[in-house]
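User: Fold this; tokens only.

Assistant: Input:
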Amino acid sequence: MKLDNKGFAFSTMLYGTLAVITLVLYAILSISKSSEDTTYYYGDTILAKLNECVSEEIALENCYSSGSGACDATSYHGCLGYSSIVTPGGGIIASEKLKEKIVSSGDGLYVDPYVDKRYIYVGSNPNNYIQYSGKTWRIVSIEPDGSLKLIDYSANITNTWDSNSQDEWSSSTLKAYLNNEYVSTLSDTSKMVSGKWQATLVYKSKSATGNMTIEELVLQDNDQDGTASSYAQVGMLTIGDYMKATTNQNCKNNMLTATGCSSWLSNYKGWTINIDAEQFNASIAYYFDNSDKLSEDNTGTSHKAYPIIYLNRTVVIEKGTGSSGDPYILK
């Protein structure tokens, strides 16, 4: 059976751990006994235990993907003791801990209906606060590989997309600012991982009315439009992030004309990483405005910019409920 990225990472960790155990056992057995049968016996036992762990990891991932709110990570890892294997001294990897609280209504963590193995925070005020690098952030999503996407909602940044009024995100002055001046204000970057930031092009002509659904967001590569994807520590929200966080289905079906697309993210209105693609306008980008609506503006004008980062998929939650008064605390 094929594992996804998170399952593969977990099984790889298990293979590494058990490989060390195997080598130690083999060394002991080689010294104390010369019997090949004994060595094979222990090897088969360890392999059987490994297969049990991998099967449980697959079952847990399937539980999460089903949208069930009753997926207890610890019950799926009785093979070797999930918390002690993943993190010496105890604790559960953040992505697993958070997915124990998946919901299907109200505020909270939902299965992303558009991206496989991804989970998003939806509603007016979900419990998605987390402390990192000396400040409190909010979790936007759990990515397919288990990394956490965070927004620095307290950042006081007002800036142009590009001082030269160009829409090339990979070389924009805003990207440069976020990945230089802004990063230097963080006290700890050790748990951050570089993200792939793709400027999504908005094709208003996709339908006769000019409306567009989330599915109609078209990702283009550098060869087609010059908006290359780029790897960097810091980026911004996408149109999809704003629209997926609202419970208003009309906002998902009519992204360019719908109003009232409020959610917890509409508290943080500003530039998105998306740009206008109609006639490949080289000076237009999108921002979320005060009417809870997507609007376009010249990239040389100023709007709020909220930094987005990714935390490593191996980060561990030590305590906290995720509320504003009791945010998640990492080990």
